[in-house]
Amino acid sequence: MDSAHLWGYVHILLFAVWLGAGLGVFVAVARVKDPSRRFEARARLVHLAHSIQNLPRICFALILPTGVELTGAINVYPLTPGLRAASWAIGAIWVLVIVVGARAQGKPLAANLRIVELVFEAFAGLSFVAYGLNSLATGAPIDDPWFAAKLFLFGLVFWAAIAADIGFRPFYAPFTEIAQEGATPEREEAISAAVNHGLVALTALYILVAVIAFIGNVKPF
Q1: Which of 87, 61, 210 is nearest to 53 (CA)?
Q2: Are 26 and 202 in contact (CB under 8 A)?
Q3: CA–CA dist 109, 126 (Å, integer)
Q4: Is the distance from CB of 169 to CB of 150 less than 8 angstroms?
Q5: How many structural domains are present in the chain?
Q6: Measured torsion, CA atoms of residues 95, 99, 102, 103, in degrees rounded to the nearest 10
Q7: 92: number of Cβ within 10 Å
Q8: Once rounded to an integer, what is the mean pLDDT over residues 196-219?
Q9: d(CA 154, CA 7)
Q10: Is the distance from CB of 78 to CB of 91 less than 8 angstroms?
């Protein structure tokens, strides 16, 4: 098996796990907003979503270095050893931030690491979007339109992930209030609005991931 087939398989496998685990998060979160469920059941769904969400986040982090390796293997863009090493270093640090943040859930460290991750995602998304759009418009530095489009869409994935995080954040305050003081129509409405906003962003993210996988495999243009 040559390196192109190996890295292509790993890349597609990560996308598949990302989508599969992401669907589990989507279903669990969608059910949390149902006020007819007992609070204990809703709390278990929140815990389940938190547990599952680390898997697609880790896949997201590993997509970067494996994507760089695949790029070099199929000769789409010349890569230097330094760029390869940097991509793996970034991926490893990113995974470490996710794992440490998950173990420190509920502590200030987890919140601080999440902020670091979101800032990184914002700048990474901007870089990929700009790189992809410039290549689509000028043919440089990437002259393959399908690959330039893939980079552009990958940049949008970063922003969709940020949008999902921001969308879900207003959920936690009213959910905690329900745990402590009981449900009210206002709290349930706030929970439903937050979940809906987050699910819209997650839907966009999963569609982008599916389209990227299609473009990378089929190369339609």
Answers
A1: 61
A2: yes
A3: 26
A4: no
A5: 1
A6: -160
A7: 13
A8: 87
A9: 17
A10: no
User: For residue 173, what are its two tokens?
Assistant: 């305050």
Q: Find the distance separating the first CA and the last CA of the chain, reported in whole Å.
A: 26
Measured CA to CA, the distance from residue 215 to residue 208 in angstroms comes to: 10
The reply to whether omega before 141 is within 30° of 0 (cis) is yes
pTM > 0.90: yes or no? no
CB 117 within 8 Å of CB 123: no
Q: Quick: pLDDT tens for 60-108.
A: 999 999 989 988 888 877 788 899 999 999 999 999 999 999 889 888 9
Q: Quickly list DSSP for the chain.
A: --HHHHHHHHHHHHHHHHHHHHHHHHHHHHHHT-TTS-HHHHHHHHHHHHHHHHHHHHHHHHHHHHHHHHHHHTTSS---HHHHHHHHHHHHHHHHHHHHHHHTTTSHHHHHHHHHHHHHHHHHHHHHHHHHHHHHHH--S---HHHHHHHHHHHHHHHHHHHHHHHHGGGHHHHHHHHHH---HHHHHHHHHHHHHHHHHHHHHHHHHHHHHHHHHH---
State which residues form the domain around 160: 3-218
What is the distance between the alpha carbons of residues 153 and 220, in angstroms, rounded to a whole number? 15
